[in-house]
Amino acid sequence: MLAAEFKKPKMHCVEGKRKENFRKRFSEEELRKRLSVVEYAVTQLGGTDTSGSSRYLEETRNGFYHCVVCTKPLFASTAKFRHCGWPSFDRAQNDSITETVERGQHGVKLTEASCADCGAHLGHKFKDGPTESKLRYCINGSALEFKKAEA
Ligand SMILES: [Zn+2]
After folding, report:
1. Given CB 3.0 to 4.6 Å as the disulfide criterion, which of 3, 57, 89, 94 pairs with 79?
2. CA 28, CA 55: separation in Å to the nearest integer?
3. How far apart are CA 27 and CA 43, in angstroms?
4. Is the pLDDT of residue 4 over 70?
5. CA of 13 to the centre of ligand 1 (A)
6. Distance 36 CA to ligand 1 centre (A)
7. Three-state secondary-structure class, residue 55
8. Which ranges in the chain belong to alpha helices (H)?
9. How far is CA 45 from the centre of its chain?
10. Residue 106 Cα, ligand 1 centroid: separation in angstroms?
11. Partners of 125 in beta bridges
12. Which domains does the chain have, with CATH numbers?
């Protein structure tokens, strides 16, 4: 997919997420080399995988989902469930996610979920999950790297 085809969501950060506030920082040059066009657009420009296109949508193996940018472990496979067109999780690893309130169209507030270490855009957090935590992290597969647990 070309970067030009990638639609930026029609919303903007209210509080503004500043990259310089994150512990791990990478140059744009390095990330453009290291990440695919889609991975870059999602994690650095706040883009969104097309519904149903996310890798790991059907992944059910045991392991961890890491930040594709900085490798921080974000979600355990035991937290994953199938809800919509993106990989969903009902809880995140401790201190792995930074939340930012975004205002979407018609003033609807959305909670953006980003990697706590590098600020990569991951997806959004909703409070309508089907499990006990009632949380639903709706995450772009392009922001994740799955590592299978050692058997
Ligand atoms: Zn990260």
Report:
1. 89
2. 24
3. 13
4. no
5. 19
6. 15
7. coil
8. 28-34, 37-45
9. 12
10. 30
11. 111, 137
12. 25-148 (2.170.150.20)
CA distance 78 to 1: 31
Q: Give me the amino acid identity at 114.
A: S
Residue type, 103: R
Q: Is the pLDDT of residue 6 over 70?
A: no
Catalytic-labelled residue, pool 67, 115, 118, 138: 138
Place of tokens 């309508």: 128
- What confidence tens digit (pLDDT) does each residue in 13-54 have? 434 577 778 999 999 999 999 999 999 999 999 999 999 999
- Is the distance from CB of 29 to CB of 39 less than 8 angstroms? no
Decide if 67 is catalytic: no
| pTM confidence score | 0.87
Q: Which residue has the tokens 């503004």?
A: 16
Give me the residue label for tokens 């990697």. 115
